[in-house]
Automatic annotation (TrEMBL):
Domain RNA polymerase sigma factor 70 region 1.1: 27-102
GO molecular function, one term: sigma factor activity
Protein name, entry field: RNA polymerase sigma factor RpoD
Domain (RNA polymerase sigma-70 region 1.2) ranges: 120-150
GO biological process assignments: DNA-templated transcription initiation
Length: 169
């Protein structure tokens, strides 16, 4: 199975050529692509990290360790991509592909021992749930109100049914 990863914000021709990257089953190449992309951009988003992580890394501690290693390499991991002004202000010296290769090798050597296919349903569930967006306060309030309205509708419907009233009395 091959997946394509494209960033719609990339305008650099070289990045666009590399933007259609094959997400191979090889976890080392996925992490190498992730580190290379981070070195090119100077940052990564949590979504990019999650998309490039191998399927079998589901433990939150492993994910945090990988994000920490990426941060240690000088690549910021952010919630969302910064705008162009922020990038110009925080721009570091341009690093070469060799630096990115070295950094990727460092991540791979530390993560390689932890990678292994898992059939544990709990780990698989945790991996999938890590990609689901959590509810906001407003979202929780909205759902609670809908549940409350549903309960009220059921109570009204039961109250209109004469046999239910006699049963309750």
């Amino acid at each position: 199975m091959l997946l394509l990863a494209v960033s719609p914000t990339d305008t650099n021709l070289n990045t666009l050529k590399c933007g259609y990257r094959l997400m191979e089953q090889n976890p080392q190449s996925q992490l190498k692509l992730l580190v290379t992309r981070g070195k090119e951009q100077g940052y990564l988003t949590y979504a990019e990290v999650n998309d490039h992580l191998p399927e079998d890394i589901v433990d939150s501690d492993q994910i945090e360790d990988i994000i920490q290693m990426i941060n240690d390499m000088g690549i910021q991991v952010m919630e969302e991509a910064p705008d162009a002004d922020d990038l110009l202000l925080a721009e570091n010296s341009n690093s070469t592909d060799e630096d990115a290769e070295e950094a990727a090798a460092q991540v791979l050597s530390s993560v390689e021992s932890e990678i292994g296919r898992t059939t544990d349903p709990v780990r698989m569930y945790m991996r999938e749930m890590g990609t689901v967006e959590l509810l906001t306060r407003e979202g929780e309030i909205d759902i609670a109100k809908r549940i409350e309205d549903g309960i009220n509708q059921v109570q009204c419907s039961v109250a209109e049914y004469p046999e239910a009233i006699t049963y309750l009395l």
